[in-house]
Amino acid sequence: MSKSPTPAKAAIDTGYADAATARRDTTPIRNAATIIAVRDRMGDDPQVLMGQRGARAAFMPNKVVFPGGAVDPGDSDVPLASPLPSLCQDRLSEQSDADLHHALAVAAIRELWEETGLILGQPGTWATTPEADWADFAATGHLPTAEALQFVFRAITPPGRPRRFDARFFLVDAAHISSDIDDFSRASDELSHLQWIPLSQVRTYDLPFITEVVLAEVTRRIRQDGPPESVPFFRNDDEASHFLRLKGYPMPRDD
User: Fold this and answer.
1) What residues are paired with 41 via a beta bridge?
2) Structure-model confidence comparison of residues 97 and 15, the more confident one
3) Quick check: 150 and 172 in contact, CB under 8 A?
4) Which UniProt keyword terms apply here (predicted)?
5) Mapping DSSP to helix (H, G, I), strand (E, B) and coil, where does residue 151 land?
6) Could you give the residue ranges of the DSSP H alpha helices within the chain?
């Protein structure tokens, strides 16, 4: 089994083979949300929910990933039964639009629903007719709720990729999911082989580099209940990678 890189070490080892290509990259960077559902957090071998992207996917084909995707324009208008914890809102607002945290939380819940069929919500009736993307979710009799989400990581896709995202990663304990966590019958076909993978085995799968880094952070804080005061930020600029921490602290370098 391969050894997981520490976040700081992984960032130091990452660079660009062609800085000129990086400078020419004009690919738009889209805001995105990824959700890391974990079950048996306090057990001997916690598990994370992951699936495999299709072979023809433009972004990370065949890779095993967490559910997630880009923020949609309508996500900012979807009501939440309960908001993100205030600490998460504060961290999400750093080096970002101050009001983006709502749309990011909504996107994370929507992607979990679309890609796995699992419901992060509470029983309730929508006050207005939901958008098309939320009609099936609303039909289950639930309102999306974000109070159980923990903002734990942020990463920007490096230049030179076919698509680039400014992704925020949210951790959620499976105990807060309202539906049967083993029932993926309502999932879309975007991810295949949906499964709960033990942390002790997950690095034997074909993972993207950034997923390896995020898993190291998740493993480090797997048994902590509240959201972190300081969040790792893997920021890829035009010519270099920087590993920072939101709240103003640089990541310590491993010597």
Assistant:
1) none
2) 97
3) yes
4) Hydrolase, Magnesium, Manganese, Metal-binding
5) strand
6) 7-12, 19-24, 86-92, 100-116, 135-139, 209-220
